[in-house]
Design brief:
The protein is mainly α. The protein folds into two domains: 43 residues, no CATH class; 32 residues, no CATH class. It is 68% helix and 0% strand. It is elongated, with a radius of gyration of 18 Å. The model has no long low-confidence stretch (mean pLDDT 85).
């Protein structure tokens, strides 16, 4: 996520998000546009989570949100994802 105070594209994205929300609201979040959005957001999110798991970044992201992962669980997950147990 970028810092909005230094991101020259933040206003444009916010406007685009607002337009998308209005369009989806107009169709009561129930047509093909919503399905397409859901599929794309899921694919994007899945890719990000897989990358964070492979790199171990998921552990620092959890800690940043006040949800640190138990060290034993972190080592187990790291080993399962091929991160060699390092976090």
């Amino acid at each position: 996520m970028s810092d909005r105070s230094t991101d020259p594209f933040a206003d444009g994205r916010r406007d685009g998000d607002a337009a998308l929300y209005e369009m989806l609201r107009d169709v009561e979040f129930a047509d093909q546009a919503f399905e397409l959005l859901a599929v794309n957001l899921t694919a994007y999110g899945w890719g990000v989570l897989c990358a964070w798991l492979r790199s171990g970044m998921i552990f620092s992201k959890c800690a940043e949100q006040g949800r640190p992962v138990d060290e034993l669980l972190a080592e187990t997950l790291s080993a399962m994802t091929g991160n060699g147990g390092s976090t």
